[in-house]
Design goal:
Shape: elongated
Largest sheet: 7 strands, mixed
Bound molecules: cytidine-5'-triphosphate
Number of helices: 21
Strand content: 5-15%
Number of strands: 11
Radius of gyration: 27 Å
Helix content: 40-55%
Length: 415
Amino acid sequence: MTEEAFAELLRANGARVFIVGGWVRDALRHVRPHDKDYMVSGIAEADFQQLFPAAQKVGHGFPVYLVSIDGSLSEVAFARKEKKEGRGYRGFRVSYDPSVTVEEDLYRRDTTMNSMALELPGKQLIDPYHGAQDVADKVIRAVSHHFTEDPVRALRAARQAAEFGFSITEETIRYMNACRAELQHEPQERIVAELRRALQSPRPSVFFRALEQADILAVTFPELSLLIGKTQPPEYHPEGDAWQHTMQVVDRAAERTPNIAARFAALVHDIGKGTTPKEMEPHHYGHELRGLEQLASWNRRVTLPKDWLRAGRFLIEQHMRAPLLERPGKIAALLLLVDKQRPVLSLADFNAVIEADHQSLPDYLVHGEALLAAMHGVSGKDAPSGLAGRAVGQWLAERQTAVLVKALAAVRARA
Ligand SMILES: Nc1ccn([C@@H]2O[C@H](COP(=O)(O)OP(=O)(O)OP(=O)(O)O)[C@@H](O)[C@H]2O)c(=O)n1
């Protein structure tokens, strides 16, 4: 059914119909809006079911229906009021009778930019909390103290700041801080989902810095929060401590690769510096090993996506040595090892993180694909017939190194 027919049918039965949430916000931001969510008020659930017998009921604790509108299945919710009664995002008493108004529904939402509606059919903007002005000013502002009723809103606000390049008001930062205690009991999947979206954003550091500003980094990402104040030799790190460095590296990685596992690897590459003994600072000898331990402990607390873990481990192990190799045998071995990380991590992804960290890239990584192609021209099948077992492996490694030396010399001659 068309949107027009859907709205007309409801209006003919005394209801009001609205487009709500992120679609309205994104339309005002002039970016391509995502899925449309609808809301209806002034109609009882039973009457709605009679009008749309094919609509599938979904939703936890309150009715949401899936209706096919303009060719896609859209969510249609009833205007509702919520009263927090228990812990977590499900601890609500909800009322959604036909008397609940659109303004009441918008009031229970997180931020002003997400609390606007367009009434159908004319798409008149309903904006009781001045979200349009905040979108124009690029400001994230909690609608009310109800913000704290769902603690994940603290992460949503930080993540949307990173996605949209918006700033967060002081008062909202305080509400984010007020979510601190409850955040410790949130399902980790919701936190990882927000982390994923933050890593997808153009500047992930905005997300982590907002959490730090609200003093909730230590409860959401304790391994990262340990990096704060960890000193580093200023001649190598004029940007400051291990936290400032990590924030720069994750942003530079986001400029260089869309691969989320690689961006995660950039985030955790120096995570071992968080547990460097105080007396060793500003040096961090052995931080690769401590980094693997920290990542493992993060993964015990939260099951991290397997590809993130694999990329994270690999970069923790390789980020110090990879750009500093001189011996051809080591360069050949590294390139072949990087090659084995596909499809989790391509050579380009690996290079993106190394360059984000060191702000330069050695020629053997810049031309790594060509060097690999040359090395792949040699196969164990070409080994002399007298060789077997490990001797074939050794012969292959030697041949591949010889090929690499030639190919690298050609690359360097052209430079
Ligand atoms: N914790 C939450 C989640 C959602 N919402 C409200 O529900 C709407 C729809 O939520 P959702 O689709 O999850 O997010 P969007 O804001 O539409 O967009 P995004 O994809 O950026 O999360 C939001 O706009 C907001 O009004 C809320 O108040 N609190």
